[in-house]
Amino acid sequence: MELTALLCSATQRLAEAGCSSPAPDAAALLGHAVGCDPAEVHRRALLGHAVDADGPEVAALEDGVARRAAREPLQHVLGYAWFAGARLTVGPGVFVPRPETELLVERAGEILASRGEGRVQVELVDLCTGSGAVVLGVAAAVERRRQAGERLPELVLRAVEIDHRAAEYAERNIESTGMTVDLRVSDARVEFADREGQVDLVVSNPPYVPDGAVPDDPEVADHDPERALYGGSPDGLAVPLQLARHAATLLRPGGWLLMEHDDTQGESLPRLLGELGYVDVVDHRDLAGRPRFVEGRWPGR
Ligand SMILES: C[S@@+](CC[C@H](N)C(=O)[O-])C[C@H]1O[C@@H](n2cnc3c(N)ncnc32)[C@H](O)[C@@H]1O
Predict the structure, then answer these.
(1) How far is the CA of 64 from the centre of ligand 1 (A)?
(2) Is the pLDDT of residue 287 over 70?
(3) Which of 206, 182, 204, 200 has its CA nearest to residue 124?
(4) What kind and span of H or E run contains 156?
(5) CB neighbours of residue 80 within 10 Å
(6) Which pLDDT tens digit goes with each residue over 189-235?
(7) Rg, C-alpha atoms of the chain
(8) How much is the pLDDT for 118?
(9) Which of 115-129, 170-184, 230-244 has the lowest mean pLDDT?
(10) Ligand 1 site residues, Cβ closer than 6 angstroms
(11) What is the Å distance from ligand 1's center to 24 Cα?
């Protein structure tokens, strides 16, 4: 069977199932089945490549399309997600990292570059690390800056995740990147008492969905763990605020907190950070113009 025909029929089935990006998903699934990336799938399709209709590639594609058409997240079917240039292992039991979180990661890289002037080491803590996406993404962003010739201090990386299953993914991803991360399986609202006043940057993509605001997409509602989504109050801010309060105890005077939030929290969370005592509080929008994450500096007491 020609790859073009396989791509067309997979795209059509995914569109009929209500998937939001049927064509890219079909190319990713076909690539997974034949062992190449989506760009190579399109190149081979254009050149008229074909596979045996009874062969393993077609069977693997069929399996992938059926799972995706049942609205399993593409990343669960593939077994990985691309995030900030890194391929992370994900699957049932862990939150699939989202592209919008890459903006927070880039901003963290900028801050560490400026904060690091004249320092030998800077310390970063990722609260609610899930698959390890943010801590590993920031480390990779800093490494890219280094390779581009910027002088950056050594990073000391720490992360915490409450869920054992999610933490296993983080452990695996940390191991596969070869980075050293002090990963703790614990409650981020109280962990790292041993680092009080010593952290330069706290990053967090916490659970922040308002309780009762059940996500529309089955990929999210049925597959992201509940504990990864809901912020523990009608406005979704109970857990984020507990984390922001705890972050203040960890930060050195002048240290930064970067925290992702729901697009309904672009005014409330910055205001509440101000009330907790953070200064230079700025909210950032994502590429679609929606309020996405907040930064603030802890002045010290
Ligand atoms: C929205 S997900 C984000 C995961 C990851 N940071 C990312 O961006 O892909 C939130 C994560 O926080 C974890 N979590 C929820 N409450 C927590 C707590 N009190 N302490 C530590 N982790 C927590 C969840 O298990 C989930 O992995």
Answers:
(1) 28
(2) yes
(3) 200
(4) strand 154-161
(5) 17
(6) 999 999 999 999 999 999 999 998 988 899 999 999 999 999 999 99
(7) 21
(8) 72
(9) 115-129
(10) 95, 97, 101, 128-131, 133-134, 160-163, 166, 187-189, 205-207, 225, 227-228, 239
(11) 28
Instruction: Tell me what the mean pLDDT of segment 241-263 comes to.
Output: 97
Residue type, 245: R
Question: What is the percentage of the chain residues whose pLDDT exceeds 90?
Answer: 89
CATH for 83-298 is 3.40.50.150
Structure tokens at 164: 């054992």
Q: Where are the domains of the chain?
A: 3-70, 83-298
Paired tokens of 107 = 């901003």
Q: Compute the mean pLDDT over every residue in the chain, rounded to the nearest whole number.
A: 95
Are the C-beta atoms of residues 258 and 292 closer than 8 Å to each other? no
Q: Quote the CA–CA distance of 107 and 45 in Å, as a whole number.
A: 39
Please report which confidence band the pLDDT of residue 117 belongs to, taking 50, 70 and 90 as the band edges.
Answer: low
Amino acid at 119: R
Return the closest-CA partner of residue 285 out of 276, 273, 295: 295
Q: Is the pTM of this model over 0.90?
A: yes
Kindly indicate the confidence band of residue 116, based on its pLDDT and cuts at 50, 70 and 90. low
Please report the pLDDT score of residue 204 as a whole number. 98
* Atom 2 (ligand 1) nearest CA: 228
Which of 89, 95, 96 to mutate for ligand 1's pocket (most ligand atoms within 8 Å of CB)? 95
How many angstroms does the Cα of residue 128 sit away from the middle of ligand 1? 4
Q: What tokens were used for 138? A: 């920031």
Q: What is the DSSP string of 14-63?
A: HHHTT-S-HHHHHHHHHHHHHTS-HHHHHHHHHTT-B--TTSHHHHHHHH
H or E segment and range at residue 111? helix 101-115
Ligand 1 atom with the shortest distance to the CA of 206: 10
Express the helix, strand and coil content of the chain in percent, nearest 5 each. 45, 20, 35
